[in-house]
Give the backbone structure.
Amino acid sequence: MIALIAAAAIALGRAPTAISVATARGETTIEVRTGPAGAPLLPASALVGALGGTVRVSGSWAEVDIARQPFRFLLGGPFYRYNNRLQPLAAPAAILDDTVYLPLQFATEVLPRLFADRYRYDPAAARLSEAGAPPPPPPAERVTVVADRRDDRPRLPSGILPGHMVTIDPGHGGVDPGNPGLFFPRGVREKDVTLQVGLLVREELQRRGVAVRMTRTTDTLIALGDRGGYCSEGCDLFLSIHINSLPKRPGYTAARGFETYFLAEAKTEDARRVARMENDAVRFETETVAAHPAGGLDFILKDLQLNEHLRESALLAARVQDNLDRVHTGTNRGVKQAGFMVLTTARRPAILAELGYSTNPEDGRFLTSAAGQRRLAVALADAVVAYLHEYERRTGSPDSTGAR
Ligand SMILES: [Zn+2]
C-alpha cells in the first residue's frame, strides 16, 4: 500500500523535494533532484553515506553496496540487479554532473520491500528510517506528499476502467510446430499448448472485461515480423506465449520452470539460447526473411532505442512473473531480457512468457493438464489486469498507449 501511495505521488509530480534518512548514527536530509525524464532521483553517494555503504561505476553499471548487499544499476536503463535477478525501476539510474543518481523509488520502495525488518519509509514524512533510529520529529514539521485524488469514473468489477484491449500471441503454428514436446502426450507440440493456453487467457480476460485480439485462433503460421503488428492502434499490450525446451545433453530433463522476457539485447547465454530458439521460426517464413533483411541484433538494438515502452514492458513482465509464481509447480527463473523478433515489432508494451519446459516430465504434465492450463491462464489474465490497474493508478489514464 505504501508503495502504491508513493507511486501515485510520484506519478502526479508530487515527489518530495527532499527525504530524510534516519539511522542510529543520525539523521541526514537528501535533496531530491528531477532527472531528464522528470523522474525524482537521489544522489547515490549521499544515500550510501547516510546508510553506510559504497558506490562505484563499472562500465555501464553503478555498483551500490548497502547493508552489505550488492545492487547493480544499469546506467540509463530502468533496471537494477539484485540476487542475480533483473528488476524493473520507475526510472533509470543516471550520471548527472559527474554524480551517480539513483531513482528515489529505490529508497522509498525497493529497500523497505527487500529488507522490511531493517528499513521503513514513511511517505507522509518523506522519511526513510533504519531499525534503531530515534523516533521521527513531531507531525507539525511534516510535509504531506500523499496524493488525494478523486476519480468517479465507472469501473469494472476488477477495478480497471472499461475499454482495454490486449493482444495474445500463441507462439508458433502451422508448419512451425515449435519444440517437439518431449514430455507432452503423443502428437502434442509446443504450438498446440500455446494455442490452448492462449485461448484460455482470452476467455479469462474477456470475463474480466478486457477485449482480446488473438494473432491466431487455429493451427496457422503467422510470420514473426507480423505478430507484433497485431498490437498497434488501440492495443494496450502484447503477450506472446511459449514453451521452453532444452537440446539433448546429459541431465537436460532436469531444467524446469517459467520465465518472462521483455525486449533487450540478450544478457545471458541461456537468454541468448532461448531467443535463438524462438527466432529460429523465421526459417519457416521464406517471404518474411526477405521482408526483414535486418533481422539480427542491429535491428533489435535500433528498435530498442526507439522503444519507449521498455519500462512498461519490464513492469508488465515483473507482474506476470510474480503471478505465475503463485500457480506454477516449477522453478521461478525470473524476469529476463532477450532479443525476441516477435517483440521488436510490437508498438506497445510487449512481453514473452516461457511457461515451462516440455523437456521436463513434471512441467510437461502441468502444461498439458486442463487444470494446469487453467491456472496459468488465470494467472496471466490476473497479471494483465493488475498491470493495467497499476498503470491507471500511475497515470490516471485508461490507455497505456497515451503519449509520453
Ligand atoms: Zn516457442
Notes: The chain has a mean pLDDT of 82. Residues 171-172, 178, 190, 242, 278 surround zinc ion (CB under 6 Å). The longest strand covers residues 237-244.
